[in-house]
């Protein structure tokens, strides 16, 4: 089934309900659906993939769930996480629709995913990033809402999908992790009402919080120590950053997963308004994670200058150049956003 691009992005509650209905109508015409999300997946990517996949199965659909980098160990406890498989070598012949969740830019799916899926005739883009590039054929985007899992929660509620404990837990993990455990400004009354519904559906909140927030491997703790010992604080304490040169992960004996969320280690410093992590990926690219604690400081505006994107207070960049060159450019833009230059 081929369609022309349709932007279903809602601006009012009425618009949202209408786009959920249109998406449902499209899904009803499909028998087999693939669901995927961005590389280096976080809790929202995994929770959204799993929740939507389970919901589609409950509607009688055959579902494939993929992620180019697989499920991080910290989310492997989710019931059904094993259903999220590595990317296949070829697209299954019976697949009618591909749904990309929590992925604001097609490039964020990963190099292998882009090559495999680029020409698929029906791609649905469900997301919550204000910088979403509107790739694909159907767009269900609610910019700057708390989490993609919250968008999916609203979709499933409108569709009348039963919230099983398994499905509710996946949604809760997505919402909780993308709101900083309900600490960020995106935590609205509607988000808290959704969390309450998910708990009522059977989420074991104490178990989830213990697994997600209270347990990390020793290697991750070593990585945090590295950041604390080598971070730089400047701009009168408003800006904190750390840079990881090529080969440093190997020297420390840590993995790619251990470097995730490192920006939060420096973000919590009192007085800091913007925090950045620079990581040499050793493939000619530099990964930059940016966070803001001040609504007046938009790290999305900084990221957009270098081809990155995300939210006003949480964004990312992948750029080419040396660590020193990229760091100098991004820091200069961040200082300007802070009003320090």
Widest sheet, order of strands: 1-7-6-5-2-3-4
Helix content: 25-40%
Beta-strand percentage range: 15-25%
What overall geometry do the principal axes of the alpha carbons give?
Answer: globular
- Radius of gyration, in Å, reads 20 Å
Low-pLDDT residue intervals, each spanning 5 or more residues: 1-6
User: Tell me about the biggest sheet?
Assistant: 7 strands, parallel
Order of helices and strands: EHEHEEEHEEHHHHHEEHHEEHEEH
CA-CA gap between termini: 53 Å
Kindly state the number of beta strands. Answer: 13
Q: Helix/strand-derived class?
A: alpha/beta
Compute the average pLDDT: 92
Tell me what the structure shows.
The chain is built from twelve helices and 13 strands. The protein is an alpha/beta fold and 341 residues long. Strand 12 and strand 13 form a beta hairpin. The N terminus is likely disordered.
In short:
The chain is an alpha/beta fold and 341 residues long. Helix content is 38%, strand content 18%.
């Amino acid at each position: 089934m081929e369609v022309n691009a349709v932007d279903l992005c809602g601006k009012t509650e009425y618009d949202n309900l209408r786009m959920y209905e249109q998406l449902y109508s499209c899904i009803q015409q499909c028998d087999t659906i693939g669901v995927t999300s961005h590389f280096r997946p976080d809790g929202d990517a995994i929770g959204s993939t799993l929740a939507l996949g389970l919901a589609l199965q409950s509607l009688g659909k055959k579902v494939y769930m993929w992620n180019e980098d697989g499920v991080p160990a910290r989310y492997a406890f989710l019931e059904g996480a094993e259903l999220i498989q590595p990317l296949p070598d070829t697209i299954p012949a019976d697949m009618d629709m591909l749904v990309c969740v929590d992925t604001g830019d097609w490039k964020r799916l990963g190099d292998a995913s882009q090559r495999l899926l680029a020409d698929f005739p029906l791609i649905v883009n469900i997301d919550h990033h204000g910088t979403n590039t509107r790739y694909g054929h159907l767009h269900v985007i609610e910019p700057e809402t708390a989490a993609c899992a919250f968008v999916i929660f609203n979709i499933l509620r409108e569709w009348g999908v039963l919230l099983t404990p398994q499905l509710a837990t996946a949604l809760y993990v997505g919402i909780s992790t993308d709101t900083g455990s309900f600490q960020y400004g995106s935590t609205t009354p509607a988000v808290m009402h959704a969390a309450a519904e998910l708990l009522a559906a059977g989420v074991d909140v104490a178990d989830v919080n213990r697994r997600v927030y209270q347990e990390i491997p020793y290697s991750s703790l070593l990585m945090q120590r590295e950041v604390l010992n080598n971070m730089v604080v400047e701009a009168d304490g408003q800006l904190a950053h750390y840079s990881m040169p090529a080969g440093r992960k190997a020297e420390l004996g840590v993995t790619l997963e251990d470097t995730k969320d490192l920006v939060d280690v420096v973000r919590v410093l009192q007085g800091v308004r913007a925090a950045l992590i620079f990581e040499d990926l050793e493939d000619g690219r530099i990964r930059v994670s940016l966070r803001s604690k001040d609504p007046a400081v938009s790290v999305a505006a900084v990221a957009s200058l270098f081809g990155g994107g995300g939210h006003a207070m949480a964004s990312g960049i992948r750029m080419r150049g040396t660590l020193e060159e990229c760091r100098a450019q991004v820091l200069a833009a961040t200082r300007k956003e802070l009003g320090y230059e």
